[in-house]
Amino acid sequence: MPPTVLLLDDDTQFRSSVTPALEAFGLRVLNATKGSIARALLEEEEPSLLIVDGLLPDTNGIGWIERLRGDGIDIPIIFVSAFYRDLTTFKHLTSELDVLKVFHKPVAVERFAREVANAVSAPMSLTPAANGPADDPADRVIFPDEDSEPGVDAEKAKQSYTSLLPIAADKLTGAIRRVHSEADRTSVVAEALRQAHDLHGAAQTHGFAEISEAVGRIESQLRHLQKSGRLDWTTMFESIDEVRVHAAAAVGRAIDTGSMAAAPPSVTPAATFFLHRPVPKDFVPTLLVLEDDPAMIAYLRSALDEVLVHLRPVSTVDEALKIASWNPPTAVLVGWPLEDREALPEFFQMFRGMHGCAEAPVVLLSLDDDPHTRALAAQLGVDIFLPHPIELVRLHHAIGTAVDRAMTPRPKVAVLRDPDAARQIEEAGIQCFLYFSLEELLREIDIQCPDAVLLGSSVAAKQVPAIIRMSAWDSDFALLCFDDSPLAGEVEVGEPLGRASGWLVNLHREAERMARLRRQQLRCGQTGLLARAGAVAALEVGLSSAQRNGRTYSLGLLQATGLDGLDHVKARRLRTHLGRLLYGRFRREDVRGRWDENTFVVGFDGSSARAVVEVIRRLQGDLDAQRTRQPEELSFLHAAVGLASYPLDGDTTRSLILAAHERLEAAVKRESDALVWR
Question: Fewer C-beta within 10 Å: the chain N or C terminus?
Answer without folding.
Answer: N
